[in-house]
Amino acid sequence: MPDIKPVLEFLSCHTPKAWMTCASEDIPTLLLDHAGLELKAAQQALTLMNRYAGRADLLSKMSRLAREELRHFESVVRILKKKAIVYRPLSASRYFGELHKQIRDTEPNRLVDTLIIGAIIEARSCERFYSLLPFLATSEPDLAALYESLLESEARHFTEYLALAERAADRPIIARCTQLLEIEARLITGPDSHLRFHSGIPG
């Protein structure tokens, strides 16, 4: 299993056990939302490539990331098919809306915030894959195997997003990371109306 200690140290909180219990009891929703998130991650990478076409470092990383996210999407869809679940998009969680509200309007702040939020999302995905493994090992071994296989790439995506943010910034980003991570922690640990892969606790 890859070392995800840097991911766990970066995040301000761990996923509450209550969320993991709900998620492991509603696998169809978890899978449908996960598939949609992989697709959106690929689309986000392509958007960044178009918007910041002059940044060679970003083009290289986002091109590779988009291809990987599409392969992850295909892997989740295969599990959906095996379970006779037809893929369909679900409504987005408030997690993404609230984080994206924090993105500043002017450059380079817009790019820096977008990349930091990308790093946070990848870190949270990695942490949730890791945290769900004990809950899925017996009841959903195929899904547990997939999630374990995704840990390395999610941790790498986190590192790449953060490094790009540091290069794009005109000042250290640690204070901005702290601000955004505090907001993310409230979204993860607070109550939520629906179960989603990045939701708070459904209730």
What is the structure about, briefly put?
The chain is mainly alpha-helical and 203 residues long.
Give descriptors for this structure:
203 residues, mainly alpha, two-stranded parallel sheet, 8 helices, 2 strands, 71% helix, 2% strand
Helix-strand blueprint:
Blueprint: H1 5-10, H2 17-24, H3 27-51, H4 56-82, H5 94-100, H6 109-136, H7 141-168, H8 174-189, E1 191-192, E2 201-202
Parallel strand pairs: 1-2
Detailed description of the structure:
The chain is mostly helical. 71% of the residues lie in helices and 2% in strands. Strands 1-2 form a two-stranded parallel sheet. It is globular and about 50 Å long.
Taken in chain order, the helices and strands follow as HHHHHHHHEE
Strand order in the largest sheet: 1-2
The count of β-strands is: 2
Radius of gyration: 16 Å
Helix content: over 70%
Biggest sheet character: 2 strands, parallel
Strand content: under 5%
> Termini, distance in Å?
33 Å
Shape: globular
> Would you tell me the overall average pLDDT?
97
Low-confidence region ranges: none
Number of helices: 8
* Class based on secondary structure composition and strand pairing: mainly alpha
